[in-house]
Specification:
There is one protein chain. The protein has a single domain (2-132, 178-246), classed as Alpha/Beta hydrolase fold, catalytic domain (Rossmann fold, 3-Layer(aba) Sandwich), CATH 3.40.50. 35% of the residues lie in helices and 24% in strands. The protein is built from 10 helices and 10 strands. The chain has helices spanning 40-50, 70-73, 76-92, 105-114, 132-140, 142-151, 169-172, 179-182, 203-209, 235-246; strands at residues 2-8, 11-18, 25-30, 54-59, 97-103, 122-126, 154-157, 163-166, 189-195, 216-221. Helix 3 packs across helix 4 and helix 5 (132-140) crosses helix 6 (142-151).
Length: 250
């Protein structure tokens, strides 16, 4: 395990590189909103190492150790740049097969990155947001969105239950990245995992969209919440991930 720093368009990006004796394949792990490389990404990196695949888990912003300011910089376009810097970094390490794994908000970030990176091999998504504007409208309602626009800030609770604000750019810049527009052009093999007890991301959006991707599958885990588990049990998630990344192309 090695902590690494590399240059991105928006400053230094920090990641943890966890390698095995496999010189070809690596997965870049992208965390969810207001999270870090030290949460579920750490668990997922361990699962990947167990099946002999390298992992790079990154911090999208300065919620932890990267330089991009979270409150003013949290937009899909900015986060794409962070993932692109990560892709460039692992290419310079001579990894030939690069895949992406994104959870929740990280899901739409990796999909949006893959639009212009057809070299990405596979995409694994945990409870992904697939249309951020639609997601936020459903979550807050039109009236609240208009209030956010006028105040130029949006509001939510952090991991510790403290309220914080970030700019309305997060919503405003999301329009070009709806997967309702881009799904048909994403040719990569995609696995979408959703939870039927998720109170954050509506799994019905994935049901509506999955057939629009040329090569995607949807698996719904019964009784699971937004933290990927069924009463703290991650077994089903782990087994699907292992099968997805070890399955050989025909």
């Amino acid at each position: 395990m090695e902590k690494v720093f590399f240059d991105g368009e928006l400053g230094k990006v920090c990641g943890v590189l966890e390698t095995v004796d496999n010189k070809d394949e690596i997965v870049i792990l992208v965390h969810w909103f207001s999270s870090t490389k030290e949460t579920s990404a750490k668990v997922n990196a361990k699962i990947l190492n167990e099946i002999w695949i390298n992992a790079l888990r990154i911090d999208l912003d300065n919620q932890w150790e990267s330089e991009l300011d979270f409150k003013t910089g949290i937009t899909i376009p900015n986060y794409i740049k962070q993932v692109e810097a990560s892709i460039k970094f692992v290419k310079e390490l001579w990894y030939k097969e690069i895949s992406l794994l994104g959870s929740s908000f990280g899901g739409i970030v990796v999909l949006s990155t893959a639009i212009t990176h057809p070299e990405i091999k596979k995409i694994f998504l945990g409870a992904p947001v697939l249309d951020l504007q639609r997601h936020l409208k459903n979550k807050y309602g039109e009236k609240k969105i208009e209030e956010f626009r006028k105040n130029n800030k949006m509001s939510r609770l952090d991991r510790n239950g403290n309220r914080f604000h970030y700019t309305f750019d997060c919503y405003k810049t999301a329009k070009p990245f709806s997967m309702f527009d881009h799904a048909p052009n994403l040719k990569q093999e995609i696995m979408i995992i959703q939870w039927d007890k998720d109170d954050s991301v509506d799994y019905k959006v994935a049901i509506e969209l999955v057939d629009k991707f040329p090569n995607a599958k949807l698996h719904i885990i019964k009784w699971a919440d937004h933290k990927l588990s069924v009463k703290g049990n991650f077994y089903e998630w782990r087994e699907i991930m292992k099968k997805f990344f070890t399955k050989k192309d025909k």
